[in-house]
Each structure stands twice: as structure tokens, then as C-alpha cells.
Amino acid sequence: MTSIHQFVVERIDGEQxxxxxxxxxxxxxxxxxxxxxxxxxxxxxxxxxxEFQNQLMIIGFPANDFGRQEPGTNAExxxxxxxxxxxxxxxxxxxxxxxxxxxxxxxxxxxxGQLDSEVSWNFQKxxxxxxxxxxxxxxxxxxxxxxxxxxxxxx
Length: 155
Known about the structure:
- This protein is α+β, with helices and mostly antiparallel strands and 155 residues long.
- Helices cover 28% and strands 19% of the residues.
- It has helices spanning 41-52, 74-85, 101-107, 109-112, 147-154; strands at 8-10, 16-18, 26-32, 56-62, 125-128, 134-138.
- The strands form two sheets. A four-stranded mixed beta sheet has the order 4-3-5-6, covered by helices on one side. Strands 1-2 form a two-stranded antiparallel ribbon.
- The longest helix has 12 residues, at 41-52.
């Protein structure tokens, strides 16, 4: 069975994110946007990353798919995230959700072996175990520090 560890994506700064580097850690993949009602979740995501970075990797995927709430360039997005939220977790280069291989894998049971889903808005969270297998997803309305997510990190 495939895992998210098979993917290498472009970072927001032009470098690469190799998901295989995160074997043995839990991973949270989140599509993000700078002009969304949920943008404040960047702060909670950063708090999680700071506290649990030895066991949890968070990867942000900026996307302009929903409400055109991420119109900026990669450089503008990176500056916004750093200045406003002190983001240090890895950020991918801006993507189109439905066209990106990672999101095709995350949303199609035929590829991920676990479940089908649809990304319905910014800040949807996908949770993957230490083996890179999809275990759950949560909609935008669920805080990154929701008890269900904190319990998942702790187990």
C-alpha cells in the first residue's frame, strides 16, 4: 500500500519537502489561506508544531481554491505567515487543490486505501500516522487544538 511518504513537493521557498523524511512522525496536512475567517488557525498550528515537533510534522499547503482567499505569491504568503503568526512549520508552494497529487491521494480511497473525502474549505486537516497512512480528516471548523486532535497526537 502506498503512503504519503512517497511524495516530494515544492516548498514555498523553492526547496523541497520530502515526506519520506517524516517517517516515524505523525503528519498533519492543512490547506491554508491568508484571507480566510479561519486564518487565525495559523497560530494554533504553530503552537502545536512548537510543542510537539519531535512527534508531529505539520505541512501547510496554501491554495486559492476557496473564496479566492489566498491571492498572494509564494513570497507574499511566506512573509504574511512569518510576520503575523511566526510560522516555522514547513509550507508548500501554492497549489490548486484538485490538481495536486498529494490532495488527490488524500481524498481518494482508491489511492490512500482508507477513505474518500472532499476538501470543502480552507484549513481542512488531514491526519496521518507514523507510517504515512491516512487516519482521519477534520473540517475547517475543527480547531487544530481540538481534544480529538490532541488525543490523536498523544496516542
